[in-house]
Amino acid sequence: QLRLVESGGGEVQPGGSLRLSCAVSGFDMKDFSIAWFHQAPGQEREGIACATHRDGRTYFADSVKGRFSISRDDANSMVYLQMDNLQPGDSGVYYCAGDSRYPREEKHALGRLYEFTYWGQGTQVTVSS
């Protein structure tokens, strides 16, 4: 079973930055696409970024394009989400998730067509002045 553990959440002022980390274990991470999901209070969980396996393509939701970046370090089984220019709407719980299916399109990569198989427990981000 793939195990994912998020860290790096916290409280930050608007315009600030945070870097979330996702530690992956259980299987070789190079065989899994890893995505980040955001769940704002009272809202459904939304896929915001994905780094695919095989070719390392990246996908981003429109809400975070130009502000967030995703990177994966397969050698150390880590995935990172760099979040810049954070806004109050970015507050919520952030989850990383893994799936062995290769996402051919954005809707696959951001979990809009099928649910990712493996999930972490999430880390809280609060953006507030």
Structure described in brief:
Helices cover 3% and strands 46% of the residues. The chain is mainly β and 129 residues long.
Task: Write a structural description.
Strands 2, 4, 5, 6, 9, 10 and 11 form a 7-stranded mixed beta sheet that branches. Strands 1-3-8-7 form a 4-stranded antiparallel beta sheet, with no helix packed on it. The chain starts with a strand and ends with a strand. 3% of the residues lie in helices and 46% in strands. The longest helix has 4 residues, at 106-109. It is built from 1 helix and 11 strands; from the N terminus they run βββββββββαββ. Strand 7 and strand 8 (78-83) form a beta hairpin.
Q: Output the radius of gyration.
A: 13 Å
What are the secondary-structure elements, in order, as H or E?
EEEEEEEEEHEE
- Global outline: globular
Largest sheet: 7 strands, mixed
What oligomeric state best describes the polypeptide chains here?
Answer: single chain
Helix content: under 10%
Instruction: Give the number of DSSP strands.
Output: 11
Report the uncertain regions.
none
Strand content: over 45%
**Total helical segments:** 1
Distance between the termini: 40 Å
Tell me, rounded to a whole number, the average pLDDT.
96
Class from secondary-structure proportions: mainly beta
